[in-house]
Design a protein that fits this description.
Length: 140
């Protein structure tokens, strides 16, 4: 079975523009939520599960499939979904994730069309460009 990754993207409208939910990984820079599809799990189920596990967001649904991102490193393709939630999300929060023995992820919002800083993990810099390009083509 071929391994697949999912990327559940959460966006929100801010007075100054559209924002993307990102987090500071304690070991690997700024990232966007991403995870592995488990056996007998649909891409959509995996996206919502990963969103919950990594952010704590409990009630979300898939709004749109944004496309398949092909990362520069060898490995699985990343299936990107725009997700929505009715939960009132804070401007920033910390979520304890059980990945890799337990990690604290520090969540915050990044303006979608702002360039990533050098704090971003390189693979997620490329993913941000993919999201920017595909969101524009599918939503504008």
């Amino acid at each position: 079975m071929q391994i697949k990754k999912v990327v559940p993207v959460i966006l929100r409208q801010h007075d100054l523009g559209l924002q993307l939910l990102v987090f500071q990984h304690p070991l690997a820079g700024i990232q966007i939520v991403k995870g592995t599809v488990e056996l007998n799990e649909s891409l959509e189920e995996a996206a919502l599960r990963e969103l919950f596990e990594e952010t704590g967001i409990q009630s979300a649904h898939i709004q749109k499939f944004l496309g398949i991102h092909y990362p520069k490193e060898n490995g699985p393709d990343w299936y990107v979904f725009v997700c929505e939630t009715q939960e009132n999300l804070l401007d920033q929060w910390v979520h304890y994730c059980h990945d890799d023995g337990g990690l604290e992820f520090k969540f915050f919002w990044h303006f979608l069309y702002t360039k990533p800083t050098s704090d971003w993990h390189p693979l997620f810099q490329d993913l941000l460009v993919f999201i920017q390009d595909n969101y524009e083509s599918k939503y504008k």
